[in-house]
């Protein structure tokens, strides 16, 4: 199944890797995503098109940003996530799942989900089904933390892996209270890197598998058919490669961290090599039309800054064009620090102009500046994090200009399966 997310329609994509066509966009006669008027962030009338490929176009420009919630006990997604994601699903809307570990070395936080074991893949299925049942488009953010970890999260208490062996200073966690300590990482040997790239590839395949139902032979044909009809044979609609926020891919991209002297370090081209090998592997595995990537060239989280973020962003945008991937998701320069917004003179504009696929911007947006960013062609889509976390019906609230629930930072990462998770109120139905 091909998925198209707000693609500017007439553009040719890719270099022969898993081409898809934007048939619905063309046949629907819609204007390019970046030119269409969006005054509410509400569905703009696009729908599934039938034909050889099922093409989905997100309705509305309000994307759920990936949000770690640390409620996947023992790294296994839990049933309470069904309700959480379903609450935030609108027909045709795009949701990006929380960062999800690709392997047993990928973890750095308690109770974040994974997608490398059979149990985890099985556990994702009802969550993916829940989103699909409401007509949502669901991408899985695949993640490796690299050095933002310590031995307690690692198999056999080993050192976390990274591009470097430089360690991180202890840091206050995103909840503003706890202090995280990090173990000295182990610099990956050059010949180990393909194995890590392969972990991303397998995780991507697992994500696409995560909704697949294998026929159970003892069912009667009638039940079997009903089962298949009720649960379409599809997993996540795609994956978002987490290349942002100081995690493993960013540890290769940024010159403050990457101190390698092999083909993965030094020049911009070399520092981007790991990220692009991951993109290549994932694209080969599941098709470019199911692949997005998130990057934060301007951010400096976890001591991962770059001396020339604009050049880095531009290099990546141009390099990504060669793969024809579905989207590039960039974090605004103003999000220099986690959760804080500092206005800066920098802009994503040149990077957005260079990238030929769908562009998603995130970081500090409200309804007004989000709509402005879309209507001026600054981005195709806007991803909302904290506002969507605390307002499960955010698109509707934007549409009718309803007041918003305030988010409670203190419950972002607690383990409770309900509090701060699925208890943010919806608008009363008579509003
Ligand atoms: C609770 C929380 C968890 C987050 N988890 C992730 C994550 O898993 N992956 C990611 O790329 N960004 C993550 N972020 C960053 C958000 O996706 C988003 O970029 C950030 O909150 C800024 O957008 P906002 O101002 O709309 O909240 C997280 C942010 C918050 C507040």
CA-CA gap between termini:
37 Å
Helix content: 25-40%
Summarize the main sheet.
8 strands, parallel
Q: Which ligands are bound?
A: flavin mononucleotide
How many domain regions?
A: 1
The number of E-state strands comes to 12
CATH architecture: Alpha-Beta Barrel
Low-confidence stretches: 1-56
Cα-atom Rg, whole angstroms? Answer: 20 Å
Classify the fold: give the CATH topology.
TIM Barrel
Q: Order of strands across the widest beta sheet?
A: 1-12-11-10-9-8-3-2
Task: Return the string of H and E elements.
Answer: HEHEHEEEEEHHEHHEHEHEHEHH
Q: Hey, roughly how much beta strand do the residues contain?
A: 5-15%
By CATH, the superfamily comes out as: Aldolase class I
Nearest-integer average pLDDT: 83
**Tally of DSSP helical segments:** 12
Question: How would you sum up this structure in a few lines?
Answer:
By secondary structure, this protein is of the alpha/beta class. The protein has one domain (65-214, 226-400): Aldolase class I (TIM Barrel), CATH 3.20.20.70. The protein is 28% helix and 12% strand.
Task: Give an account of the 3D structure.
With 431 residues, the chain is of the alpha/beta class. The chain has one domain (65-214, 226-400): Aldolase class I (TIM Barrel), CATH 3.20.20.70. Helices cover 28% and strands 12% of the residues. It is built from 12 helices and 12 strands. The chain has helices at residues 23-27, 80-87, 118-133, 193-209, 221-230, 248-253, 268-286, 309-321, 349-354, 367-375, 386-390, 394-400, and strands at residues 62-64, 94-101, 137-143, 161-162, 171-172, 179-180, 186-187, 238-243, 291-295, 327-331, 358-362, 381-384. An 8-stranded parallel beta sheet has the order 1-12-11-10-9-8-3-2. Strands 4-7 form a two-stranded parallel sheet. A two-stranded antiparallel sheet has the order 5-6. Helix 2 (80-87) packs parallel to helix 3 (118-133). The longest helix is centred in the middle third of the chain and has 19 residues, at 268-286. The radius of gyration is 20 Å and the shape is globular. It starts with 22 loop residues before the first helix and ends in a 31-residue tail after the last helix. Flavin mononucleotide binds at residues 65-68, 98-99, 141, 242, 244-245, 294, 331, 335, 339, 362-365, 384-387, 412. Keywords: Fatty acid biosynthesis, Fatty acid metabolism, Flavoprotein, FMN, Lipid biosynthesis, Lipid metabolism, NADP, Oxidoreductase, Oxylipin biosynthesis. Residues 18-35 have a biased composition (Basic residues). GO terms for molecular function: FMN binding; oxidoreductase activity. It comes from Oryza barthii. Pfam families: Oxidored_FMN (PF00724).
């Amino acid at each position: 199944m091909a998925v198209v997310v707000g693609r500017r329609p007439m553009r040719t994509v890719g270099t022969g890797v898993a081409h898809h066509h934007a048939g619905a966009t063309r046949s629907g006669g819609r204007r390019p995503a970046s030119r269409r008027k969006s005054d509410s962030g509400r569905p703009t009338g696009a729908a599934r098109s039938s034909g050889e490929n099922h093409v989905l176009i997100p309705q509305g420009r309000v994307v759920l940003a990936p949000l770690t919630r640390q409620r996947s006990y023992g790294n296994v997604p839990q049933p309470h996530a069904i309700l959480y994601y379903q609450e935030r699903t609108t027909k045709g809307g795009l949701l990006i799942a929380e960062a999800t570990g690709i392997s047993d070395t990928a973890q750095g936080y308690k109770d974040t989900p994974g997608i490398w074991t059979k149990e985890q893949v099985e556990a994702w299925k009802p969550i993916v089904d829940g989103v699909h049942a409401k007509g949502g488009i669901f991408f899985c953010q695949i993640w490796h933390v690299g050095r933002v970890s310590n031995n307690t999260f690692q198999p056999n208490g080993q050192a976390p892996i990274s591009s470097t062996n430089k360690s991180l200073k202890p840091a206050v966690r995103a909840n503003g209270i706890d202090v995280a300590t990090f173990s000295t990482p182990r610099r990956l040997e050059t010949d180990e890197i393909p194995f890590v790239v392969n972990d991303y590839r397998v995780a991507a395949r697992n994500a696409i598998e995560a909704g697949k139902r294998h026929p159970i032979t003892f069912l009667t044909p009638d039940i079997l058919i009903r089962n298949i009809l009720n649960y379409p044979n599809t997993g996540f609609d795609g994956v978002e490669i987490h290349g942002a926020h100081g995690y493993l891919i960013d540890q290769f991209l940024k010159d403050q961290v990457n101190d390698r002297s092999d083909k993965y370090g030094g020049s911009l081209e070399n520092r981007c090599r790991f990220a692009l090998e991951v993109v290549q592997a994932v694209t080969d595995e599941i098709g470019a039309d199911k692949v997005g990537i998130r990057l934060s060239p301007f951010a400096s989280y976890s001591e991962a800054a770059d001396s020339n973020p604009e050049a880095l962003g531009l290099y990546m945008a141009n390099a990504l064009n060669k793969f024809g991937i579905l989207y590039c998701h960039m974090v605004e320069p103003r999000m220099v620090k986690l959760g804080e917004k500092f206005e800066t003179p920098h802009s994503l504009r040149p990077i957005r102009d260079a990238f030929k696929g769908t562009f998603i911007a995130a970081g500090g947006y409200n309804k007004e500046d989000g709509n402005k960013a879309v209507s001026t062609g600054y981005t195709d889509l806007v991803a909302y994090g904290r506002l969507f976390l605390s307002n499960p019906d955010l698109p509707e609230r934007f549409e009718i200009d309803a007041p918003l629930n305030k988010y409670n930072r203190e419950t972002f990462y607690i383990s409770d399966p309900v509090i701060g998770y699925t208890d943010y109120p919806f608008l009363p139905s008579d509003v």
